[in-house]
Amino acid sequence: MSTTLEPLESSAPTLSVRQVLMLERVLAGEPEVVAGAGQLDRAVRWVHVAEAADVGVMLSGGEMVLTTGVLLAGDENKQAEYIQSLHRAEAAAVVLGLGRAFPAPPDVMRRAAERCGLPMVVLHRPFPFAELTEEVQARLVRRKFAAVSMSEAVRTALTGLITAGAPLQRMLDEIAHHSGCPVVVTNLAHRVLATAGERSAVDDVLRDWERIARQAGVSAGDGWIRAELGGRGERWGQIMLCGYRGDTATGRLLADRAAESLVLHRMLGGTSAHTWEEQSAQSLLTDLVSGVVPARQLLPRARAAGLPVNRRTFVPLVVRDGDPAELDRVLRLLGLPGIVAELADGATAVLLSLARDQDATVLTANFAARLTGTVVAAADPRAAWDDVPAGMREARHVADAVASGVLDLPAVVRLKDVHLRGLIRLLRDDPHVQSFAERELDGLLCDTGSGAADDLLAVLRTYLATGRNKSRTAQLHHVSRPALYRRLEAIQGRLGVDLDDFEQAASVHIALLAHDAQQS
Fold it and tell me: Distance between CA 374 and CA 411 in Å, rounded?
């Protein structure tokens, strides 16, 4: 018999017909597959010895039936009915021991088995069925116990992570560790929310995600195993094991345990599927801003997350004091493809993906016009994905430069709008700049914390930001002109400068910008 040897000592809860035939005890009987050779990967749930023609009534499916055919010899109708009965009962295979009843494979049984696709095996040497039954049953019991143990180990590990308040990514890393293959969580639109597993293997999956999302799960035998995520009658996503190499039944068990844990994680965490989408976007945009991961490596993640990336114009934005949910709502309202994610310090990153023939400036202005009480910082549009990280950092820099509040800002602030403030922001950590700021402002900073010094510092900041406009400064601080003059005199006295002198005022202004940048 020509067949392929498969490992027997795995954690799979079942044996295939092919694997049973490779057992040493079976090989000693010189087995030969005479029908149904294309169905040898059927799972064997149990082994059963039966001779009666209506054997199917005693089966529940998945059995490998052993027979000598002693009650079938000489009656072709019984032989055909025997095979039909096994087929109706969904038996895994039939093994016929050749001997006095059948010295050669009976043609009636062989043809009937071939027609219905039932694997039929004959043993050319005498073989004690009891030994085969004992060995296969023992192996099946051990495998089922191993599968249950694995399932409980996974459940225990994931429950422990949930109890410890672990994030979604940590949960998926644990699942990937047990499955040994990439793990992907998606929403109902097949947009990737999170992944885990070896980075290169995950990237390979994401590069071809559109095809995989359409075809995965059509045949569980190909290693693509998925389980639905949801509860209370509502589905909101799925988890997929991508290219699982183990037994299909074990993979399904693992996927089900993972799905149960992820649903529990969501319920106990008070989160929603949309929050997982935000986490996915946050991870992607944070990596883009940091530049730690090359942009080319992030492209499959962006595409799998539903962001159009082919022949597009990318507009990096950073919004100060913006609600991510509100920003996402505005994008949907305007029909603008993009992703939104909250960064640190109250900033929210937005990456727009526009068609090449769309006016990026107009659409960005429309987006900003829908927002109130926020600062929208924008970088110049990028035509190449590789340039997006630099654009995200530029938008972040612009947003940081106006974080302390600049008067009379345009609706969309760009690098050209932050001028000196932007330069100072870049140099804020330079020790020479720090020393300069402390030296220039020492007369006010030495008393910081007192009401009077803090008030004078605020007046100085407004006075310089308005271009030394005394009327505007008095109006913004709700004081009279004489009161403002007294404050300006106090400031000049403490600093030892003449604010009417342009160079001295500029020096103080630069020092104040550097101080504010360092504080933020």
Answer: 9
In the predicted model, residues of the chain with pLDDT beneath 50 are 1-12, 217-220, 270
Closest residue by Cα to residue 157 from 172, 143, 147, 144: 172
Question: What is the spatial distance between Cα 377 and Cα 388, in angstroms, rounded to a whole number?
Answer: 15
pLDDT, tens digit, 9 for 90 and up, residues 38-69: 888 888 888 888 877 777 778 888 888 888 88
The whole-model pTM stands at 0.56
Q: Helix 248-269 and helix 168-179: axis angle, to 10°?
A: 170
pLDDT at 407: 53
How many helices (DSSP H) and strands (DSSP E) are in the chain? Answer: 21, 16
- Give kind and range of the element (H or E) at residue 31: strand 31-35
End-to-end Cα separation, the chain, in angstroms: 77
Helices (H), 370-520: 388-401, 415-427, 431-440, 442-445, 451-465, 470-476, 481-495, 502-519
Minimal CA–CA distance to 83: which of 47, 111, 62? 111
Confirm if 240 and 273 have CB atoms less than 8 A apart.
no
